[in-house]
Amino acid sequence: MATDTERERNRQSSEVSESCCRQARRYGRDVAERRWVPSEAAVTALQSSNEPFPLSPRDPCQVIARLDQIGSPATVAQPVGVTSAS
User: Fold this and answer.
1) Which of 5, 34, 35, 68 could form a disulfide with 77 if both were Cys (CB 3.0 to 4.6 A apart)?
2) What angle, 0 to 180 degrees and rounded to 10, lies between the N-to-C axes of helices 4-30 and 60-71?
3) Which residues contact 19 (CB under 8 A, 6 or more apart)?
4) Residue 42 CB partners (closer than 8 Å, separation 6+)
5) Given pLDDT bands bounded at 50, 70 and 90, which one contains residue 86?
């Protein structure tokens, strides 16, 4: 039988998985609108992730949201079958 701690861990794990799935679905849905080159503002915003490693645990869903907020705008997409000229 699961303990309260195990149930809480399972609940948190489910929340994290659901958060990741939501972000991934949104990213996949919006991928066709992504730029081929990140904007200067998006690349500059990546610097906000340059911070000291936290001394205590953080809410994993907040970490995922922050990574998505900072990182996703700086990613690019290339349609399947399209290659860059050399």
Assistant:
1) 34
2) 10
3) 60, 61, 64, 65
4) 73, 74
5) very low
Where in the chain are the domains? 1-36+58-75
Ramachandran angles phi, psi of 53, nearest 5°: -65, 135
Instruction: Please check the confidence at residue 38 and state whether its pLDDT lies above 50.
Output: yes
Residue type present at position 31: V
Which token pair is 10? 């399972």
Q: Check: CB of residue 81 under 8 Å from CB of residue 33.
A: no
The Cα 39–Cα 14 span in angstroms is: 34
For residues 64 and 13, what is the distance between their CA atoms, to the nearest angstrom? 13
Q: In Å, what is the CA distance from 39 to each residue of 25, 31, 44, 81?
A: 22, 15, 9, 23
Q: Tell if the pTM clears 0.85, that is, is over it.
A: no
